[in-house]
Amino acid sequence: MDDKAKITEVINLYFDSMYESNAQLVKQVFHPMAKITGYVEDKLEEMDTNQFAKFVGAQKPSSADKNDPKKLEIVSIEIAGKTAVALVRDDYLRMSYLDTLSFLKIDKNWVIYNKLFHIEK
To answer: Which of 51, 53, 71, 116 could form a disulfide with 100 if both were Cys (CB 3.0 to 4.6 A apart)?
Structure first.
């Protein structure tokens, strides 16, 4: 599997972690030192991986449990050596997000190192 396919796989697992409210899956796809940052109603929100995993895990019932429609669009993936950036559009908690995900390749595995999110609506 090439790097783009591996990154795509991580993006799909990232989306699944939120869709299923799966905190363990969040910890699997994010680097332990990752930051999740963005604005919610003009207030800057910042979380580390553990805080984000706890937040995601607390969303019960999950979107999967409610049979919410899935929306995930990989807008772009750019790879530079052992780093990469992906723009991803997804629906979560009844809002549409445009996420900028930065990746690191550690050994042979890609992990999300940072997430910047923008709420589109």
So the answer is: 116
